Amino acid sequence: MEYLNRIADNELQLRLEAFGAVQIRGPKWCGKTTTAERQAASVIKMQNPDTREGYLATARTKPSLLLKGTTPRLIDEWQVAPVLWDAVRNAVDERRMKGQFILTGSTVIDDKDGDIKHTGTGRISSMEMYPMSLFESLESNGSISLRRMFDDPGYDIDGAMSPLSVEGLIFAACRGGWPASLDEMSDKARMLIAKDYVNVICDEDISRVDGRQRNPVLARLILRSYARNLCTLAKKTMMLADVTVEMETTAMSTFDDYVQALERLFVIEDIEAWCPAIRSKSMIRTGKKRCFTDPSIAVAAMGASPQTLELDLNTFGFVYECLCMRDLRVYSQALGGRLSYYHDRLGLEADAVLHLDDGRYALIECKLGSKEIEDGAEHLLELRRLVREANEANRRPSESRAKLAWAMPSEKEEDEVNPEHRLREPDLLMVLTGGEMGYTREDGVKVVPIGCLRD
To answer: Which of 43, 137, 221, 286 is least surrounded by Cβ atoms within 10 Å, i.e. has the fewest?
Structure first.
């Protein structure tokens, strides 16, 4: 099928201008190689069965031979021969030129043999790539820009209309953002892509990632438990208890080992807590929010389908939140975005806190239906109020004016904020909804349909 533009295209181009080499990391089947090939002038595929053994022999003997070719040269699945990392770093140092190599890989390298001697800092830049967002798969019309909402306080989103119904959202989440699922085929066939992805991960990749044999049945049970606790703060002990119902002898160390392998395969990507100084630390929940890199993994692991989720919108609400997390990660790439969440023991929450690399951030609630928008907006406004109160509490008399107070007794002393304790107020409050219309509320909260959002 025709190539659909990816948000990662521009980021890759920019990094090639700035660095000698770029590493693209992310889950398998998400389109890393295809995206890299569009900017590469020559390609070497380390997992090509016709040439793999020859490449590996060359890598062991003289890895620099594999780097010869028109640049940028793409080395696909470079982690098959970890020694290539240092070879690339050395070549970048010797050539003193930008945009020499593109490295792609679907696993975090386990360099147990010590083949990698250098981090690559300053030579090899790393970027993440995810399955396709709704805008990249042409299901979001892109009428509302995340960047503009940050940059332009007067940005008018009123009246923006999403083309996606709830049924359309359910199908998109179940199908996932896998490029192969957008080829010409029946809807039933599209559903097989994510199912096969889970099967390959459990049957093959979870053991290949570091050469340690793991039980596919246990891998499926752990994925299913994760899916059942999707976008919640479920503790590992609770998920382990879920797994031991069917595998009684599973130890926590084994559970951790499998989860770490799934993280290295970019299957699981939990969300860290945001702990600002606006409440007692003991009141803010600090556990990880359980999440996958794509919502279709959860759907496949649970054995769900569009039909079953249409009858269980409560469960789909968690799948929808995972969909929002994926898209927010993709859209914020060029802004240097990273995600966290806020939740305290008094029930106040923000499903996502999107931090930009320039210090700005957004508080976001993910609400599938229009009836939940009011609750979501109230949470966001309350969080902003707490930030303001915390800043007010950190105000102190100006030391310079206090010293002069004896000379100016009639002049009222002013307070100043201690910059060490001042927390920036949120730059954007947003309810990301599955509804149809976008608008800005009178209180400033932006209601944005996921089917309208873009980078």
So the answer is: 286
Q: How far is CA 26 from CA 264, 266, 379, 397, 444, in A?
A: 9, 6, 33, 51, 36
Nearest Cα neighbor of 339 from 350, 347, 328 is 328
| Residue of 89, 149, 86, 167 whose CA lies nearest to 455 | 149
Q: What is the mean pLDDT of the chain?
A: 91
**Residue that the structure tokens 């028109």 belong to:** 70
The predicted-structure confidence for 163-179, as pLDDT tens digits, reads as follows: 999 999 999 999 999 99
Of 171, 309, 283, nearest to 230 by C-alpha is 309
Locate tokens 């050395």: which residue? Answer: 90
Is-contact 306 174, C-beta < 8 A?
A: yes
Q: Which two tokens stand for residue 90?
A: 């050395």
Lookup: tokens for 151: 């940059």
Alpha carbon of 301 to those of 115, 179, 191, 253: distances in Å?
35, 20, 13, 22
Task: Measure the CA–CA gap between 315 and 306, rounded to whole angstroms.
Answer: 12
Task: Give CA angle at 167 (161, 168), nearest 5°.
Answer: 55
Q: How far apart, in whole angstroms, are the C-alpha atoms of residue 304 and residue 230?
A: 13
* Cis amide bond preceding 306, omega within 30: no
- The tokens of 406 are what? 């004896």
**Inter-residue contact 273 to 340 (CB < 8 Å):** yes
This model's pTM is above 0.85: yes
Query: What is the identity of the amino acid at 20?
Result: G
Mean pLDDT of 349-369: 96
- Which amino acid appears at position 2 of this protein? E
Torsion of CA 153, 159, 163, 166, to 10 degrees: 90
